[in-house]
Every structure is written in C-alpha cells, then in structure tokens.
Write a structure and sequence with these properties.
174 residues, alpha+beta, five-stranded antiparallel beta sheet, globular, 4 helices, 37% strand
Length: 174
C-alpha cells in the first residue's frame, strides 16, 4: 500500500514536467513547421524526454526532420534548463500506429481502430478496443463489440491507433 501513493506522486510529477516542457518548446517546434504529438518524461536515475512530432504539411518525418527538431529543443533547454540533472532527449515520429492525445487526434482518425485505456473503470473495465466514431462535447465515442461507448477525454490515460490494413492503406495514400 505504501508504494502506490509514491508511484502516483512520481507519475504526476513526470506529467507536470512533461506539460511544462511542452509549453516551453511548442513555439520553436511550431516555427520549424511541426506539431507536437506528445512529450513524455520517464525514468528516475537517468531521465528520458521523448518528444514525438509530426510535420504540419502532412508529409512523413525524416531523420533530418528529427535531428533539426532535436537541435532546436536542445538549444532551448540548455538556456531554460527545466530539468535538473542529466537526461536523454529522444525526438521521433509518431509512426503509423500513433498515440492519440488531443481531441483533434480522435477526430482526425475517425473510422479507424484504436485501443484506449482510461484512468478509472467504466462499467467495470478500463481498456477498450474498437472503431473511433467521433467526439462530442469532450467525449470520445468508440464502437466496442457492436456497442457505442462514451469515454470522457479527460479520463483517457493512454490511446493509440491499431495497425490494420485500413490504416496502412491510408498511410500509403498520404
């Protein structure tokens, strides 16, 4: 029982740090022509900062794109120094089976299969897998086993697209 509160505290601390860093780096990433998909901090001894970005023009990410964003973020973080101690910066593309974070992510990938985990049980379950049906008033709608389920966006802890033939076809077309 004693470990749970410490874990929750640490998780909330990492989430707060991720949000602060995203607010700090978003203007420079935006200026370079990219959108931030997610900033995620992990680790204790050696922190890992994962920054997932995508191109605003919808084109696929290249290694040079990641390097350009990484250099800009590194320079900014050296000046502001929001993380005490050593850390590793990792800049990457979200990939085809990308995480879904913002409301607009769920809207953009309407009709595709997704896996969603919420932070508190709904009808006895926390994990849902099904077809994204849309968003209304901050509620994500998903078709699970033939039944529409409404998941409040603030309760979504983790979500990602599932690799399907439809998703691969859509990625090849863009």
């Amino acid at each position: 029982m004693g470990r749970w509160p410490a874990f929750c505290f640490w998780r909330n601390l990492l989430l707060d740090m991720s949000n602060r860093i995203q607010d700090l780096i978003e203007p420079i990433v935006d200026e370079l022509g990219f959108n931030i998909v997610r900033v995620q901090m992990s680790g204790k001894e050696m922190m890992l900062m994962q920054v997932m970005v995508e191109r605003k023009d919808g084109q696929g990410m290249t290694v040079d794109d990641c390097a350009s964003v990484s250099r800009a973020i590194s320079t900014l973080l050296e000046v502001d120094d929001p993380i005490k101690g050593a850390y590793t910066l990792e800049v990457s593309s979200p990939g085809i089976d990308r995480p879904l974070v913002r409301i607009k992510d769920f809207e953009r990938f309407l009709g595709f299969q997704a896996k969603i985990e919420i932070n508190r049980p709904l009808d006895g379950r926390r994990r849902f897998k099904g077809k994204l049906l849309g968003v209304k008033d901050d509620v994500v709608k998903i078709l699970v086993d033939g039944k529409e389920v409404n998941l409040p966006h603030p309760d979504i802890q983790r979500a990602k697209l599932l690799m399907t033939d439809d998703l691969i076809s859509a990625a090849e077309e863009s």
